[in-house]
Amino acid sequence: MAKGRESKPHIGIFGRRNTGKSSLINALAGQDIAIVSEVPGTTTDPVRKSLEIPGIGPAILVDTAGIDDTGELGQKRVARSLSALKTVDLAILVITANRFEAEEENLIGVFNEQKVPFVVFHNKSDVLPLDQVLRNEIASGYGVRVLSFCALKPDNLEEAVGALQQAMPETAYRSVSLLGELISHGDLVLLITPIDSEAPEGRLILPQVQAIRDILDNDCIAVVVKEKEMDALIRVLNPRPALVVTDSQVFLRADASIPGDIPLTSFSIMLARYKGDFENYLRGTPKIAELKDGDRVLLLESCTHHVACDDIGRVKIPRWMSNHTGKKLEFDVVAGQDKLPRHIGDYSLVVQCGGCMFTRRQITGRLKEAIDAGVPVTNYGMAIAWLHGIYPRAVAPFAKTEGVDYL
């Protein structure tokens, strides 16, 4: 099976104001890419820096505001810093002057709650060395690496990078193939790709491009067709497809045209299994049948985009869901990392898009609040398949691979 990195690992830098978090980023990058100032609070909002870290490779460093910021605006900055934990694979807690108090303990509590591994860097150790008693207390109390460091004179930079390598979870370097477990060398895979108002002019959407590349990486044959030419092609196509992947919007037509013995799924379900919380999607999707009048449904988009009159998330899914259930439902749509308009417990269902612009960590972190609150979660493609009555067929290829129940 061909291997490829899903995305760059995201490393978040957290700590009080003026502990040298931005200087640490510059030290790891080997260049001045973050603004450094002696004035506390220079970094006001999470800032993402794409860079190459020797020994780790391409990565995204997330520079955050100080956790000890004050005032009403400061508290909003702290909240935004903590929200960044939903997107990072690894956290660095930066302390100075041997100061480890309630703020740091509370922050570690949030790390653990969000299941984010972390290391502790005692920065500015040239000014005041790390107290060995404190080092031992933190290391033994939390089971983490505690490193003495000086961002301005990073003499032990190799040791620092080694600490990050050791703490980085394997999920930050996912190498699972999109379709590799469903196809074999030389197989033909048919991709049904409508060209509608949401398709970017002159190119395919990202999931379609990713699928084509993955098929080629697995030494298979990719055949791409629009839905209008699908029937004519399937009659003459030789060899028969080992798998058909369709855009969710033409699921019904594909289900009718593709013989039942040929596995059929969608680009969105492919991404759901690849980078989403697939098992919770499988459990949550059937809850659509239990929706009642007045229930509120949250639709999560991974990115901002031009909203068309037939937008899949904002228009079609709400219409299909209302018609299928026969209930008067309320719908909220949130794009990117925007704040939810109401408490997660107010929702009866959360529907996450395929997430082609998000990492796996970002999607699972985003869904964690709903799952912890007992709110069912599903995915655009899986919800559409359920609403169109072809859910068992659409999820079967991946559910069988995972060995989980899907009915």
Protein architecture, described:
The structure is a single chain. Helices cover 36% and strands 17% of the residues. By secondary structure, it is α/β, with parallel strands linked by helices. It has three domains: 10-173, P-loop containing nucleotide triphosphate hydrolases (Rossmann fold), CATH 3.40.50.300; 188-270, 3-Layer(aba) Sandwich (Rossmann fold); 277-402, 3-Layer(aba) Sandwich (Rossmann fold), CATH 3.40.50.11410. The strands form three sheets. Strands 2-3-1-4-5-6 form a six-stranded mixed β-sheet, with helices on both faces. A four-stranded parallel β-sheet has the order 8-7-9-10, sandwiched between helices. Strands 12-11-13-14 form a four-stranded parallel β-sheet, with helices on both faces. A hairpin with a 3-residue loop joins strand 2 and strand 3. Helix 13 (380-387) crosses helix 14 (391-402). The two termini are 29 Å apart.
Largest sheet: 6 strands, mixed
Percentage of residues assigned to helices: 25-40%
What gap, in angstroms, lies between the N and C termini? 29 Å
Give unreliable regions as ranges.
1-6, 39-44
Strand content: 15-25%
Strand order of the largest sheet: 2-3-1-4-5-6
For the record, the count of structural domains works out to 3
**Shape assignment:** globular
Proper CATH architecture of the largest domain: 3-Layer(aba) Sandwich
How many DSSP E strands?
A: 14
Using the CA coordinates, give the radius of gyration: 24 Å
Per CATH, the class of the largest domain reads Alpha Beta
User: How many individual helices?
Assistant: 14
Q: Summarize model confidence as the mean pLDDT.
A: 86
Q: Which structural class do the helices and strands define?
A: alpha/beta
Which fold name corresponds to the CATH topology of the largest domain?
Rossmann fold
CATH superfamily of the largest domain: P-loop containing nucleotide triphosphate hydrolases
The helix-strand sequence is: EHEEHEHEHEHEHEHEHEHHEHEEHEHH
